[in-house]
Amino acid sequence: MGRPHTVVHASGLSANAVVEALRRGRSYLVESAGVSLDVTAMAGEATAGPGEELAVPAGDGVDVAATVTGAPGSKLVIRTAAGVVASTAVDSGGSGTLRWPGCGVADRFLRVEVRRPRSRAGVLTSMVAMSNPIWLCDGESR
């Protein structure tokens, strides 16, 4: 109902499970129920999604995979503390996939945005989807 939508990755459908997932940031925003976003960061054998921490061993990089569906004509972007680090156009069918080899802990966090391009009138880009961050932490201190 309404716009935007919050998609929550909860352990169950109870109110407590949904509230706990929201508290932990295990969610993302989309402009409508027709848009889906999947984001995963990997370091060695460890994986994390939005709202989670990823322990990254010293000197190791991070592999990021992001997929969007239901967002034709938009742009899929990976953003870190340094700003936009990777982007790709989403096809006319609405699907797009982006992979990026990150630097690791130096990136501090990453999140994914999906935006429509600027109109001819110069109106700001509209947000189609946005993930919560995945926090990149020093694996040695864990």
3D architecture notes:
The chain is globular. 6% of the residues lie in helices and 48% in strands. With 142 residues, it is mainly β. The strands form two sheets. Strands 1, 2, 5, 7, 8, 10, 11 and 12 form an eight-stranded mixed beta sheet that branches. A four-stranded antiparallel beta sheet has the order 4-3-6-9, with no helix packed on it. It starts with a strand and ends with a strand. The protein has a single domain (34-141), classed as Immunoglobulins (Immunoglobulin-like, Sandwich). A hairpin with a 2-residue loop joins strand 3 (36-43) and strand 4 (46-48). It is built from one helix and twelve strands.
Low-confidence stretches: none
Work out the oligomeric state of the chains in this entry.
single chain
What is the helix/strand order?
A: EHEEEEEEEEEEE
Structure annotation, total helices? 1
Helices and strands in order:
Elements: E1 5-8, H1 15-23, E2 27-30, E3 36-43, E4 46-48, E5 53-56, E6 62-69, E7 75-80, E8 83-89, E9 96-102, E10 109-115, E11 127-131, E12 134-138
Parallel strand pairs: 5-12
Antiparallel strand pairs: 1-2, 2-11, 3-4, 3-6, 6-9, 7-8, 7-10, 10-11, 10-12
Outline:
Helices cover 6% and strands 48% of the residues. It is mainly beta and 142 residues long.
Tags for this model:
142 residues, mainly beta, eight-stranded mixed β-sheet, 1 helix, 12 strands, globular
